[in-house]
Amino acid sequence: MTLTNKIFLALFFGVIAGSIINSFASDLTVYLIDIVSVLGKIFISSLKMLIVPVVFFSIVCGVANLGNVAALGRIGGKAIFLYLFSTSIAISLALILANIIDPGSNTSLSLNSDYQVKSAPAIGSILENLIPSNPIKALTEGNMLQIICFAIILGVTLTKLKGNNSNKIKSVLNAFNELFLKMIDVIMYFAPFGVFFLIFKTFMTQGFGAILELSSYFFTVLLVLVIHFLFTYGSFILFLTKMNIFFFYKKMRNTILFAFSTASSAATIPITLKTVEKELGINKSVASFTVPLGATINMDGTAIMQGVATVFIANVYGIELNFSDYLSVILIATLASIGTAGVPGVGLIMLAMVLNQVGLPTEGIALIIGIDRILDMTRTAVNVTGDAAVSCVVANTEKNK
Fold it and tell me: How far apart are CA 169 and CA 162, in angstroms?
């Protein structure tokens, strides 16, 4: 049996077993929650363990092997443009379909007025913190934006370094890069078990009850995510690359399942990077930069949630939104994907910014927080697919596939 089939079966049995416990034996949750949480966290930690070394060595090696600083600027500019473009499409699709379906228009839900959302950091502070004053601290804390910047600077410096020392350093860095990519294979061997425990915990604690209560919101978000996943990214691959669209989605299956189970684009970086390079055949000089960058700033799934949530919360509160409000939502959600990059709890922070912009109470977030974990898994699967699709497009334009 292939690894993909094992992961899929683990996912399926996790959903079934968790739902059964939640519906018919909820008393067992108290006894199972600790051990299931620990086993799931061990799997997440094993993935997170590889994030920093895989991203760092991949970027340094990719930039050093690129040998052309101007090419790096082109790759970065194209990637950022495509990520922002796909995010604007995502939020637009969400607002259009949400207005057609009109979730929450006939809903009566209780509000948790005590719920508070962290405020977003100032754009200035984000820019100030791009360059790490202490790169070792950035590496130990896993500050992804700082790690990316430091790795780029180191890689560019290596291109300027001549002689035997340069070759020795590159050889060592390439060896470490191969080592950590190989470690991904070791961890993937245990993936089905990790996936099972993560999904089992989610459905054991939440079940389908929360979904039914907010079904109009839940299925609207899900519908837009599926459309964006298939048609937006499919169009990218179909019209902007030379790759077969079925080949692309087939090779992304493992990564999508990993992303769904972990609900973390960052934790999935090692898997995404390996898939993009080894399975999709994208050159390291492109993939090593576009994938970590995408995991940090590409938030199409989150943007979709924000668009539907804005309409849903407006309907619950009986507040009418006009055309200028929708334009504001598109602009804020698109720019906030970069402005809040790397901030913990970024999805809810971005949603709070959007709600404030159109005059909706941020307390409305409490209405949807109960099922956010389940939707977050799907959003993450969409996000990592977008990272791979943009990597393919950029590589095609650079003739680096």
Answer: 11
Q: For the chain, how long is the longest CA-to-CA vector? A: 72
- Ordered domains of the chain (ranges, CATH): 3-397 (1.10.3860.10)
DSSP 260-291: HHH--TTTTHHHHHHIIIIIS---HHHHHHHH
For the chain, list residues with pLDDT below 50.
112-115
Q: What is the pTM of this model?
A: 0.83
Which sign, positive or negative, has the C-alpha torsion 353, 95, 385, 240?
Answer: negative
d(CA 8, CA 329): 36
Instruction: Give the C-alpha separation, 346 to 351, whole Å.
Output: 9
**CA-wise closest residue to 391 among 231, 236, 264, 185:** 236
| Predicted local confidence at residue 396, as pLDDT | 93
pLDDT for 108: 56
The dihedral built from the CA positions of residue 341, 301, 388 and 234, taken in this order, carries a sign that is: negative
What is the total residue count of the chain? 401
